[in-house]
């Protein structure tokens, strides 16, 4: 087993300790995302069986339920799974990851990954998605990415890159379409824009739930967050942070009969 795989596993498993914070502070998704999924795939979510993989604390799961889907949450990390079960006790929950989906062939209409596909190995996770998808079903992968054309998110990224050895953004997001095509899916893309205005404390809590901060020793983590508090207050002196997002969506339709 490679050291890079083990390191990635350590980062992804770090979410368990900050699960409640993650659930309270992370950004959600606009309804336009699900409109785009339906438009790009030509399939309705209402009544569809969806495997929400890397479901975390159920942020996407809740929204899919609101669209009338029949959802099974799939989450490997114990702390995240416990948080999801506490807020969505009636939703079926399976402890697994996208590289090994414990579901029957042709048993799902959609497989979704919200802010999670980058934790998988596409050469394993995409064939697994194709296996469990019914003909015409679709894999949907999407990420909220802060709009770095605005000055302050770009400056924040520079600070975090310098402060956090494991810092990672989502620079490889746009490669997901080529990965899905290479592995046999017909793809479509959408880039949606939305924003939220949140208290400074929530913005800091969101940052603190990121894996590259969660794995830092506590004194160093506190130091980085204190520096971010000072930097954000210089931009938002009223204590209300406006975050603009580019929501990057790629769908891959399983045309195989």
Concise summary:
The protein is an alpha/beta fold and 257 residues long.
Secondary-structure-derived class: alpha/beta
- Using only C-alpha atoms, the radius of gyration works out to 18 Å
The fold-level CATH name of the domain at 3-146 and 169-194 and 246-253 is Rossmann fold
User: For the record, what CATH class of the domain at 3-146 and 169-194 and 246-253 applies?
Assistant: Alpha Beta
Assign the CATH architecture of the domain at 3-146 and 169-194 and 246-253. 3-Layer(aba) Sandwich
Largest sheet: 7 strands, mixed
What would you call the shape? globular
What is the H-and-E element order? HHHEHEHEEHEHHEHHHE
Low-confidence stretches: 1-10
How far do the termini sit from each other? Answer: 35 Å
Q: Please give the share of residues in helix.
A: 40-55%
Mean pLDDT over the residues: 90
Arrangement of strands in the largest sheet: 3-2-1-4-5-7-6
Total number of strands: 7
Number of helices: 11
Describe this structure in words.
There is one protein chain. The chain has helices spanning 3-13, 19-25, 31-41, 59-66, 78-87, 122-132, 151-163, 176-182, 200-208, 211-214, 218-235; strands at residues 49-53, 70-74, 93-94, 108-114, 133-146, 186-199, 240-253. The protein has a seven-stranded mixed sheet with strand order 3-2-1-4-5-7-6. It contains eleven helices and seven strands. It is 42% helix and 24% strand.
Topology:
Layout: H1 3-13, H2 19-25, H3 31-41, E1 49-53, H4 59-66, E2 70-74, H5 78-87, E3 93-94, E4 108-114, H6 122-132, E5 133-146, H7 151-163, H8 176-182, E6 186-199, H9 200-208, H10 211-214, H11 218-235, E7 240-253
Parallel strand pairs: 1-2, 1-4, 2-3, 4-5
Antiparallel strand pairs: 5-7, 6-7
Helix pairs in contact: 2-9, 7-11, 9-11
